[in-house]
């Protein structure tokens, strides 16, 4: 009896066992589960987490096909991308539009701007949760509050946007909770210590630089996009007038390779139609305003035009 009492007393005064340390994989699992539930009420599980690092070109060459990719910026500098595969993208859309997941996988189709808009809440929440969850792990400091900007059409556009250097990519295999449907989410962000100025300080081959800078870049000025039933589109004929509701001279968007670069304003210079760039071109996608938000009654003054030019709105 005395021995039992002594053992009990030793247990009572023994220092508490510290909780097990949080691993990077578990931190990422928690971040994704919380982000999905809190942002779009999607209940999922993370089946697996993988991590890899290496040169930008190497990682981009191994990206899966058909990803919805959105560029990540820190300040004015692109630092990486975040992406969903077709299954995860469809799940984010279905739970917000239908209130539930369909039992079968969706048909393969191209990524649209609407897909990106519906996926943004989940991706933004994952970045925020990950920033907090990885503190105290080997991933601490890897993400530095990056923000979502424009959708990237593919790996080629990502290679043109991002600076060379070392990047880390994490992949999360998702159990979407509907039958056997599984999806993929990934984030590829530049490793700390590799800054843009450091990348630019490397001497470049003059011949290669001339070829790259001499490559043709096509800018497209988009005034409006309209969706029509196929029957109406086939019935279009020369001379028919199409209404463009809400379109003004300031409705122009400048695009390159499917990426929205910024706003423009339609006008005239020397008697010819022209588009004035209203802001420095940068791939940035503004948040969709909440219902009930009213636009400002005042607009900023347009920038001055160089002397000798006539600008007619």
Automatic annotation (TrEMBL):
Q: Where is this region: Disordered?
A: 290-313
Q: Look up the domain of life of the source.
A: Bacteria
- Domain Flagellar motor switch protein FliN-like C-terminal: where? 210-280
UniProt xrefs under Pfam families: FliMN_C (PF01052)
Transferase as a keyword of this entry, yes or no, is: no
Q: Name one process (GO BP) from the record.
A: bacterial-type flagellum-dependent swarming motility
Does this UniProt record's set of keywords contain Disulfide bond? no
Q: Give the UniProt keywords, A-Z.
A: Cell projection, Cilium, Flagellum
Q: Which PANTHER family match?
A: FLAGELLAR MOTOR SWITCH PROTEIN FLIM, YOP PROTEINS TRANSLOCATION PROTEIN Q
Protein known as: FliM/FliN family flagellar motor switch protein
Q: Which species does the entry assign this protein to? A: Rubellimicrobium rubrum
């Amino acid at each position: 009896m005395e021995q039992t009492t002594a053992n009990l007393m030793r247990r009572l005064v023994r220092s508490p066992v510290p909780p097990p340390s949080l691993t990077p994989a578990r931190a990422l699992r928690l971040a994704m589960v919380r982000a999905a539930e809190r942002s779009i009420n999607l209940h999922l599980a993370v089946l697996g987490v993988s991590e890899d690092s290496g040169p930008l070109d190497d990682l981009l060459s191994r990206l899966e096909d058909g990803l919805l990719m959105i560029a990540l910026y820190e300040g004015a500098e692109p630092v990486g991308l975040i992406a969903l595969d077709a299954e995860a993208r469809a799940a984010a859309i279905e739970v917000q539009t239908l209130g539930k997941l369909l039992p079968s996988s969706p048909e393969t189709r191209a990524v649209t701007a609407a897909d990106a808009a519906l996926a943004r809440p989940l991706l933004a929440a994952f970045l925020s949760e990950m920033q907090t969850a990885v503190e105290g792990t080997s991933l601490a400091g890897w993400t530095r509050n990056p923000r979502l900007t424009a959708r990237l059409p593919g790996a080629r556009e990502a290679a043109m946007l991002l600076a060379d250097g070392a990047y880390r990519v994490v992949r999360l295999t998702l159990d979407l909770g509907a039958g056997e449907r599984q999806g993929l989410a990934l984030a590829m962000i530049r490793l700390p210590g590799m800054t843009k100025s450091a990348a630019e300080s490397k001497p470049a081959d003059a011949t290669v630089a001339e070829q790259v800078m001499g490559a043709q870049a096509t800018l497209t000025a988009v005034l409006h996009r309209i969706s029509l039933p196929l029957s109406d589109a086939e019935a279009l004929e020369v001379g028919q007038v199409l209404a463009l509701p809400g379109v003004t001279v300031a409705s122009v968007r400048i695009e390159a390779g499917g990426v929205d670069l910024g706003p423009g304003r339609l006008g005239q210079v020397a008697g010819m139609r022209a588009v004035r760039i209203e802001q420095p071109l940068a791939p940035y996608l503004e948040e969709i305003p909440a219902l009930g938000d009213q636009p400002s009654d005042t607009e900023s003054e347009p920038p001055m035009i160089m002397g000798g030019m006539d600008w007619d709105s």
